Amino acid sequence: MIKAILIFNNHGKPRLSKFYEHYSEDTEQQIIRETFHLVSKRDENVCNFLEGGMLIGGSDNKLIYRHYATLYFVFCVDSSESELGILDLIQVFVETLDKCFENVCELDLIFHVDKVHNILAEMVMGGMVLETNMNEIITQVDAQNKMEKSEAGIAGAPARAVSAVKNMNLPEIPRNINIGDISIKVPNLPSFK
Amino acid sequence: MALKIVKGSIDRIFDKNLQDLVRGIRNHKEEEAKYISTCIDEIKQELKQDNIAVKANAVCKLTYLQMLGYDVSWAAFNIVEVMSSSKFTYKRIGYIAASQCFHEGTDVIMLTTNQIRKDLSSPSQYDTGVALTGLSCFVTPDLARDLANDIMTLMSHTKPYIRKKAVLIMYKVFLKYPESLRPAFPRLKEKLEDPDPGVQSAAVNVICELARRNPKNYLSLAPLFFKLMTSSTNNWVLIKIIKLFGALTPLEPRLGKKLIEPLTNLIHSTSAMSLLYECVNTVIAVLISLSSGMPNHSASIQLCVQKLRILIEDSDQNLKYLGLLAMSKILKTHPKSVQSHKDLILLCLDDKDESIRLRALDLLYGMVSKKNLMEIVKKLMLHVDKAEGTTYRDELLTKIIDICSQSNYQYITNFEWYVSILVELTRLEGTRHGHLIASQMLDVSIRVKAIRAFAVAQMATLLDNAHLLTGNAQRNGICEVLYAAAWICGEFSEHLEDPVQTLEALLRPRVSTLPGHIQAVYMQNAAKLFAAVLCGQEGGAPASSETAQEISQLLIDRLPLFVQSADLEVQERASCVLQLVKYIQKLRLKEVQVGEEVTALFSGELNPVAPKAQKKVPVPEGLDLDAWINEAPSESESEDEKPRAVFTEEEEPRYTRTRHPEADEKELAKRREARKKEQANNPFYIKASPTSQKGYQDAPGVEHIPVVQIDLSVPLKVPGMSSSDQYVKMEEERRQKNKAEKKKKDKKKKGDKRGRRGRGDLGPESEEDITPAHMVDIVTEEMPENALPSDDDDKDPNDPYRALDIDLDRPLADSEKKLPVRTHRPLESPKSPGDEEGRGRVLEEPKKKGKKDKRENVKEEKKERKKSKEDKKKKKHKHERGEEPGEADQSGELTEAAAPPSSTAGEASDLDFWLSSAPTGPPKTQEAEPAAAAPGSAPKTTPDSAPGLAPASEPEESKDTEPEEAKSSKHKKKKPKREKEKKKKKKHHHHHHHHGDAGGDESVQNGTVEEEEPLCPMSNYILLAENSYIKMMCDIQGNLQDGSQVVVSIIFENKSDGFLKSMEFNVLDSLNTKLQRPEGAGPHDCVTVPFQLPPGVSNEARFVFSVQSIVMPQKLKGTITFIVKSEDSSTHEKLDFKLHFTCSSYLITTPCYSDAYAKLLESGDLKGSSVRLEGISMPFHHLLAMICFHHHFSVVERIDSCASMYSRSIQGHHVCLLVKTVDQTVSIDAKCDESSLLGNVLDEIKLTFSQC
């Protein structure tokens, strides 16, 4: 079982948190902080597993993480999951994000956390791996987005226009974003399949 | 109006959306909290609008804020609203929000049941998908129970997308509602062979999760998984299956044998490291389960170790880590094969990655031998010096101690070396493990007699340099060591070179800053030292009498400081010692020789005792431990507790030493004598045998240890070279000398070895020629003979997975044929919104294919027709079974129960058969026989049961009831459905004026009791009548939609061996209350119970009564008549009963909101009454639950021990209660617009509580 999926940046700012067991908001924040603390002090070229048993209940649990550019992707799993399998799953997740957002960068995750949730929901459900095939995931996500668009229809048009205007009116966006917008680089791993 | 809409949508455009919110937060970095709080205010405004788009947008923003750590539970109700939007876009937003912040304690969850059910059956697969995904995150036991059937249906959905989600979520349903596992399992199993790989993978996933917790129940699936393993190409599935096999093999060694070959093939062939790794892991598990295995397995081990070596040598740190992890599993059973890779593992100790170093450390534990212990520990000590984080350093410290002390110091050849290591470890800064070092010091110096002199010298130095240990506040953990040091110096003071100096060190003013328990030990041991000095002085030269005088003075000077200690123990001991010293000084002035007497205070041999020895002491004949010695039962100090505390642990000698110096010395001596005698006769007490000690002192090697060469004053400070290093060299020399001497003294040594424990096969290298420099006075840990390692003990009773330990091979019993529909559920308010429909819904379920039939039935219920239908159905089932006897059938709910255990029995023997084909398995023929017989048994039943024949066999009969039951449920269903509709309307109504007051009230109405501590299950059903044939339980409920109707549900249970048929129900109508009979029937005609009952089966029927006045309770007399048909005879029986219509049964649980409630009370239309109940000891929430449950009230508000409750009668009377409890008195103030109704209800409440 996957107990939690966290994405935070190099400064520990959460970009996505998905807990498959219930914790209070405070505990969740504490877990994010502690996880960040543990993960961030590790060197680049050490192993991607961490025995942070106390973090999310039970010594059975492991943290499995990957670091891409400015983001950490952390999965907390128990012993029923294959460690290397989860590493690959993270890779699939990131590649899917990359496809869905077209050259994903941290900003995409910042502004579209709802979409990230939607993508994740097609991969992991209630802590169990639902789908690992990237094409299948993307097909489903696209189909749902299409539905959303068709529902918005004409009524959605003014909203879209306004949001375009809003974005136009705010030329300072890039200025405010001082967290590197480096797109996530996807290293070539030996394919899992 | 139109304008308003336009305006609304324009407003909406300028609402902040999620992106705006994020942008805003980023623009207000300095005052983020303030900005967010204004945003939350905006969101609250948005949520108040009617436009669902605005609400969805607000909820979307809330989801983001939740991630930032803001509590958004106040918006739970709005989330439910957004979830129930008809548009997918909003629905998805709602479900995501719910999955992020709903949990079992969220009260509005119970409002979602219908919405989720609607979404699950939505024609759009994405609506269903989104609902399933959301539900997987917040499913509660209630939801699981109510929706289990819907989800089960979805498992056979046409779209694989839905199927895989439905399969996965079943695991969550099982966890929350374990009763669903057995009925759902056949279908789950079916999904293992689903054409869609995604669904297959999901099913494997779920079964693996289930099997991981309770593997034994899933053994029978092994052949199926084996097939999958050899055919699947999906690595995810393979990994899961292989992991599952890893869990199964320990239970079935034959399985392991069968697995080895395909797994080895996979190891050779696969290129995916993850798969390779899991294969290796499972092979290891197999090898462990076959530990006594055949010789050819060494090849498999070699293969594993070899592959793991490749992993460890890989530059990828991940592989290295996993390699080490797997290696440690092999280590347990095949230490030799791992030891050959010692070089590699030692190399990993230097790795820059802490995780890898820790793993390597774990491995080291199993790799030490007498030869390499010193070397390895030396290496570890270097790491201790270099280590940065305290965690890693502490880990190293415990590992060093673990490694050295394992199996009774088996690998330590030189204890002086070990003591110096311990002393060196005390230099560690900020360790938490001071007590660990201390206990090692104590243990070693008590048990290894020859080391005492050395240890005492080291400890004296430690005490002298105590300031180094305690100087730094950070090092507090380590001062525990002083406890051990003081005790050792005091206890073995005869070995002290300069007791006076040590005594002085014990009494330094600085000591008073140490923790109390350490100071206490200091005091006691100062007294011991004092005694030793006195004694030495009296026996020796008179010149030292001055020193004795000096130390007496020293004690008298220093002790008062401790007499003032805040710690009681220190205070007490210090004042005792002080008085003693003063007294002795007085005696000494009179030139009395007191040395011997003072020493006697502390004399007595200290022997190590096995931890459990005390338990094994046989009870002397004639001693009755249970009998009272004195007739004083009030003081029940457990007598057997005390001695155990004294003797059990030799590591905590302070217990044995808490004698009072003041105690009468003669008395003490007497007791000591007695104890010595007893010990001498006690076979379990390990005696200090002078022979062994002597023999050991003769042992070669001891003389060679140049104790004096050690510079005792420095070892604490030497920076680079640690004192223990010299032992490594010395050890080398000693071993060589030993070898030389060995030949000569061969015989003699053998005699010495007698003291060693059965160290067996664990010693991996032939190291018998390395004799230890010191003997450990070993205590083998004795265990009671019957103390078997039972795995039951360590199971946590609260483990949620325990409930899933369900035998799946057992055929489904009658009651389980469909998902349990709890007609009488423990603890529920009978009309919770989700439940009523849940019931109706669930009843529909089992008849997926009988839809047509159902409709017909509703129209007309002609007996003949049904008969023929039944027959048809029968044929159908038979057909199915005949064709596929082994398979779990599609219509599992209907036929599975009736089907004899054929399929599963067949499976079980299938497993044997399958396993037996392994080369070493039992002979095939034996196994094959039952396997062949089992499938045969299935079709066997078919021929007899030709349609139209009278039921002959048991399974036949039970099958007969199926359609009948279905019919009755249809009968029942009409009502709930109508009720449902009304409910819905009602709910909508609430929702509207609900916005203002948060959802808190709702929870109290229905669910609270379930969340708090458990209450014994309650049932609405009360016994109506019973005889030897039949038992009737009944429940009376008002009918919501018709103010003049009451529904009586009666459960009929057949208690006889025969078949109950032609049941007819009749009551004697009164003017006020009448049974509603079918049209055309006379006022005294019977009503036929629409089913028959096979033996042991129960079923429920409902009867409708019309009532006119509901203000009074009423009793109606009635009769049930039926025919009991047993094998050879049939008799006509009847049973009388009295139906009691209480006033409470006219009440209907109706939620009410506090504002409406207040208005109602203010209106002044209500008449009041009150009642007091005395001596109610149950918790308040139980009390409320009882009232809610038995009298159909709902809680409006609850504040501490005071609650307001509301209910409404079927004719619209309002009943309000104010329940207060003080101590054991409950006072209920009630108001109602009909006073006689109120009076009766109160009487009934009183009666309820007087009964319990």
Give a concise summary.
The complex is a heterodimer of chains A (193) and B (1252). Chain A has 193 residues and is an alpha+beta fold.
Chain-wise SSE layout:
The complex is a heterodimer of chains A (193) and B (1252).
Chain A: E1 2-9, E2 14-19, H1 25-40, E3 49-50, E4 62-68, E5 71-77, H2 83-101, H3 106-111, H4 113-123, E6 124-125, E7 128-129, H5 134-169, H6 173-176
Antiparallel strand pairs in A: 1-2, 1-5, 3-4, 4-5, 6-7
Helix pairs in contact in A: 2-5, 4-5
Chain B: H1 2-14, H2 18-27, H3 32-48, H4 52-67, H5 76-83, H6 88-101, H7 113-120, H8 125-138, H9 141-154, H10 160-176, H11 181-191, H12 197-213, H13 222-231, H14 235-248, H15 253-269, H16 273-289, H17 297-313, H18 317-333, H19 335-339, H20 342-349, H21 354-367, H22 373-386, H23 390-409, H24 415-425, H25 434-447, H26 452-464, H27 466-470, H28 480-491, H29 499-506, H30 516-539, H31 545-563, H32 568-589, H33 595-600, H34 613-616, H35 641-647, H36 665-681, H37 690-698, H38 725-752, H39 833-844, H40 851-859, H41 863-883, H42 892-895, H43 902-916, H44 924-944, H45 954-992, H46 1000-1006, H47 1008-1011, E1 1022-1026, E2 1030-1038, E3 1045-1054, E4 1059-1067, E5 1073-1075, E6 1087-1088, E7 1098-1107, E8 1114-1125, E9 1130-1141, E10 1147-1148, H48 1154-1162, E11 1167-1173, H49 1180-1191, E12 1194-1199, E13 1202-1209, E14 1214-1222, E15 1225-1232, H50 1235-1251
Antiparallel strand pairs in B: 1-2, 2-3, 3-7, 4-6, 4-8, 5-7, 8-9, 10-13, 11-15, 12-13, 13-14, 14-15
